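Please describe the entry underneath.
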Amino acid sequence: MNEFEKGSDPESGGGATRSVDRALRVLIAVLEPEAQDTTLSGIARATELSPSTASRLLATLSTHGLVSRDTDGRYRTGVRMKQIAAEALRDDPLYEASGPHLAQLAAETGETASLGIAAEPGAVLYLRQAASDRQVQTKVWTGRTIPREGTALGAALDGHAEPGTAHVSHRTDSDVVAIASAIYSAHGEVIGAISVNSPQFRTTDDEIASFGAAVSKQAILLSRAMGAPPALFSRTASGTA
């Protein structure tokens, strides 16, 4: 028996919907950045599906190139899935425009620079990063999400600082100082935020001020590249908020 239940009418959406839902749950279980076990048994547990059902769905996803199976039995992102992701990012103007600004920010500060966007309610998605070249650096978290509450990127996305200024968050739980500034669209709406993350032990107050100015500058330049009106930043003062 296939994933459609016996006697169900695919046009009615019942069996078809369940089948699609199961397949998407399996795909997400493979692609989830925090996934610890992407073997068949691990995916079955994560999706609460029987191993036989998970196996059939993985086989179908593999046929379409959305997942692939390594020699160690773990499932990974398939070539077709990577192609789809790359095409989607190429169609994102903010992602495309952010590259040079993140690279410049990382070069100026010597720390990891990030682009974040709003994700599901209460979360921020790390969409793109330029890594620090220092031996000790913060993690590169591209594709992962963090809470909006209590984070610099979240505060910037929520508009807690004047346009063109930066918000500082001291994450004592992770010994990280984060400095972020919002990115604005042509309509003056917040569409993302860029940040610098620095290990707290080596970040002085003077560096926080310097990093804040650098983040604010690149946020303004990126916002202008996205069509934000210059008047939006007329009250801007360099530094942090």
Observations:
- Residues 205-225 form the longest helix (21 residues).
